[in-house]
Amino acid sequence: MYALATNHKFQAVVAALGIALSLGTYTRVYRRVTTMGPYDQFLLFGDSITQFSCSQERGFAFTPALQDAYIRRLDVINRGFSGYNTSQALKALPEFMPTPAQARLRFMTVFFGANDACVPGGPTGQHVPLDQYMRNVQAIVRHPLVSSHTARLILITPPPFDEHQSGDGIRTAEHTKKYADACRQVGKELGVAVLDLWLVFMTKAGWKPGQPLAGSKAAERNKVLGELLHDGLHFSPMGYRILYDEVVRTIEREWPDQAVGNTGTVLPSWEAATGETA
What we know:
The structure is a single chain. This protein is α/β, with parallel strands linked by helices and 278 residues long. It has one domain (38-267): SGNH hydrolase (Rossmann fold, 3-Layer(aba) Sandwich). It is 45% helix and 10% strand. The longest helix is centred in the first third of the chain and has 32 residues, at 2-33. The chain is globular. This is SGNH hydrolase-type esterase domain-containing protein. Pfam families: Lipase_GDSL_2 (PF13472).
């Protein structure tokens, strides 16, 4: 009986020693790779187009795709607020923006303008005058809570609007274009990377400057815009796929060291963690 108890005790000591050695190896490898804490964040700030980019009900979705691309590298955080214009966005920003002590922003997209571009005097009250829209975008980019992170910022222009799919008169293709142009101008003035999604979509639709504006009632119904925008404003899976591809391209062009394939993971691989490649 004594021999059996001694044997069990010996096995327990060996097991404990094995765990300790394994943890020691893991700790050494772990410390070579990273110091654990909250993951750096990739913050998506926008309106309903951003908010709805989490949903996979229709198919491909932007936010999950970006989360998958940066898994174990960055936390992709969706801060989309349906219906918000830039004036509302400015008020909302301090309510959710982490301090650098809480989490560090590595990337941030600012994607507003679709609601600001509602026609003046419309029933929704979402319209923001063009000059105020520009000042608001500047204020978001320069906000102390944003600048404290020294994050890599991407301004995304509002996309085209398709009047043929939504004839309520709250938005027009021509009016939306002005806000896309203004967003592009703000980015240039501030030296911030701009993803000109309006132009990307319009180019996909085959539109060229000088032609009647695709999406307007002055032009024929555009098949491609109908495929990119499922209701004239919000994105189909095809539209979100283009958004994802263009965000990835923007990062590769502006910050190649931050492209998905060039960033290290948080914590070591399982092989390294078990000491097999240590």
